[in-house]
Amino acid sequence: MSNNDLWIRDIIASYGVIVMIILCIGIWIIRKWPGLRKDIYKAHLLGFEIECAELASPYKEHLFKALQYIVSNDEMLRSMGSIRILEIGVKTGENIQFYPEGTHLIGVDWNVKLGEYLVKGHRSWQFSHVIIERLIVGDGSSLKEVPTGCVDVVVTTRSLCSVRSIRSTLQEIRRVLTPGGKYIFVEHVPEKKGTCKRWLQIALTRTGIWPSLFGDCRLDADCVAEIENAGFEKVSWTFLALEGYVSHSFHLSLSKQHVFGIATR
C-alpha cells in the first residue's frame, strides 16, 4: 500500500468518526427538537415574558383604566355591572389583574392546559375575581366559536407577532366587538428602518431561528399600519420603549419598542 493510500485511509478514519458524531448529534436533535422547543418556550413564558409584563405594568395600568368606564352591550352583563373581555394570547394571565371584578373572560391561547392553570394552578387565586366563560385553543386568526358583536373589549399584549395572519386576526377582533367596543393593544414593533437592530430582527425572523424558539414570534412584524387600516372607527396609540432589568437583556433589546393603544369599533 502506497503512502498516499495510507494517508487517505487515515483521513477517512479520522474524519469519519467526526462525521458519525455529527450525524448522531443531528439525529438526536431532530428527535428531541419538539420537546426542546416546548421547554425553551415554556422557560421563555415563565421567565422573560413575566419580567417584560412587570416592566410594562405601570403603563398597562394607565391603559386599562378605560375598562372602568365601559358599559356592556349585553343586557344581562349590564344589569350585573359586568363586561365581557376576549383576550388573545393569555399566556400566564398577567393582564387579568387589571380586569374589573366579575369580568366574563374568553381566553384564546395555544396552551391546551390554560384552563387548568387559571383555575387550579398555584396562581389561581390571582384570577378568582373573573369568570372564565370560555377558552379557545388558537391564535385569534379564526374566532368562529365567538358570535359577532358579543364582546365588549378585546385585549392583545405581545401577541400579534405570533398569529398566523395579523390582518385576519384584526378582522376577527373587529367582528366580535360590539358597536363602540374597545380593542386594547400592547404590541412590540420593529426598530427603525436602516438600523443594525432592524436588520438583525429581519434576519432572525426570516431564517426561522427566532420563531422556532419563541412561539412563532416574528421580530419584524409591524402591526401599526394593519391596525390603522382594519376599519376601526377611531385608533389612538403611543410608542414607548421598555427599559429595565430582565434576565435576558439581548431578548429585550430586540423587542423593547412597543405601541400602546386603544381602537374603537
Automatic annotation (TrEMBL):
Domain of life the protein comes from: Eukaryota
Keyword Cell membrane: no
Gene3D superfamilies: Vaccinia Virus protein VP39
Name used for this protein in its record: Methyltransferase type 11 domain-containing protein
Transmembrane portions of the chain: 12-30
Pfam families on file: Methyltransf_11
Domain (Methyltransferase type) ranges: 86-185
Organism of origin: Ooceraea biroi
Keywords: Membrane, Transmembrane, Transmembrane helix
GO function terms (MF aspect): S-adenosylmethionine-dependent methyltransferase activity
UniProt-listed PANTHER family: METHYLTRANSFERASE LIKE 7B (PTHR45036), METHYLTRANSFERASE-LIKE PROTEIN 7A (PTHR45036:SF8)
Matches recorded under InterPro entries: Methyltransf_11, SAM-dependent_MTases_sf, Thiol_S-MT
Signal peptide: none
The keyword NADP is annotated on this UniProt entry: no
